[in-house]
Design brief:
- With 112 residues, this protein is of the alpha/beta class.
- 35% of the residues lie in helices and 35% in strands.
- α2 links the parallel β4 and β5.
- The protein is globular and about 35 Å long.
- The N and C termini lie far apart (27 Å).
Length: 112
């Protein structure tokens, strides 16, 4: 599945969800299609869900909230792990992504 606009693209390959571009969507409702894609992958109960954010230049507070809520959903699922990939070249990622480990200490966080 793929969700694409002029500013961002979100697509999945198996249990890996890729994010790229700039996501400045207005509120929870605007992020609903992306959350639905994420929930569908979680519902398939893969051994590990990968969120690849290495090409996501910007994510507003509503989007960060989406990641936090999804992390909590994954935490509730037995036998489903989560790997989050970020990039040190994108400042918001080094600052915000470590908070996901506070919500779910078992998250594998790779910011390289």
């Amino acid at each position: 599945m793929e969700i694409k606009t002029n500013e961002y693209r979100v697509w999945s390959e198996g249990a890996t969800i890729h994010y790229e571009g700039t996501m400045r969507l207005s509120g929870t409702e605007a992020y609903a299609p992306i959350l639905e894609m994420m929930d569908n992958i979680l519902a398939s109960k893969p051994s590990t869900i990968v969120l690849d954010l290495t090409a996501l230049e910007f994510l507003n507070s509503s989007g960060i909230n989406l990641l936090a809520k999804f992390t909590i959903q994954v935490r509730k699922q037995e036998n489903v792990g989560m790997l989050v990939k970020g990039s040190t070249r994108i400042p918001w990622q080094s600052k915000s992504l470590p908070n996901l480990k506070k919500l779910y200490p078992a998250v594998d966080l790779v910011i390289a």
